[in-house]
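Project standup — Tuesday

K.O.: blocked on the structure for the chain from last sprint. Re-posting the sequence here as requested.
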Amino acid sequence: MNTDFINLTSENLADEHLCCIIRSKKSHPGIDAKRQWLSERLNEGHVFRKLNAKATVFIEYAPLETAWVPIIGDNYYYLYCLWVLGSPKGNGYGKSLMEYCLADAKEKGKSGVCMLGAKKQKNWLSDQAFAKKFGFEVVDTTDNGYELLALSFDGTTPRFAPNAKKLEIESKELTIYYDMQCPYVYQYIGMIKQYCETNDVPVSFIQVDTLHKAKELPCVFNNFAVFYKGVFETVNLINIDYLKRILKK
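H.V.: unblocked you, prediction finished:
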């Protein structure tokens, strides 16, 4: 079992692969956008830790105060992603990564670690059942089934910002909020844009490009959010079949 892990830094960011979309030769716009986004986050205490191999084995978290999510709390870490996919599964990598995050939080005197979940597990959110094995508990909820999970070290808890529970916007057309935290966002935006242009579907893409915008969002958010007919639909990156189901409503 390979136990060689590496943390991304400003010095190695340009040369290390980013796990989600691995390219050996050809550059990928989503990866380039992610690298740029990360380059501006690393000095804020953002952590991207991965197995030192060409594999999807990584964890990504940041101080809640600078995490691009509409969640508020004092002195917490926010866990964006924890993924172990393919052949590396079953080797204890997820446990090692989670334990690293929790140990890091304790070492830095954090009050705890939190993450976004849902009553029904969402494809693009980290496994909340796995997190609960470490003691994460639901500390806040939205009316449409999303949950904030937290592991508190001192009894304090974070919460969704009031605006995150709004779940409505004035515009009735398909509206997608996104940032470049996930390398897949770029290609999903392109795919949705092409479909909407071909089928005359009005759509608005709103890039969340500042921390302030992220904290003020009218819904829960991990890097993507979809509204239709003024109502929040999902944080999942949506393929065309999923989009069609939304548009039938």
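K.O.: great, moving the ticket to review. The helical segments are 29-39, 93-107, 128-132, 185-198, 211-215, 240-247. The first helix runs from residue 29 to 39.
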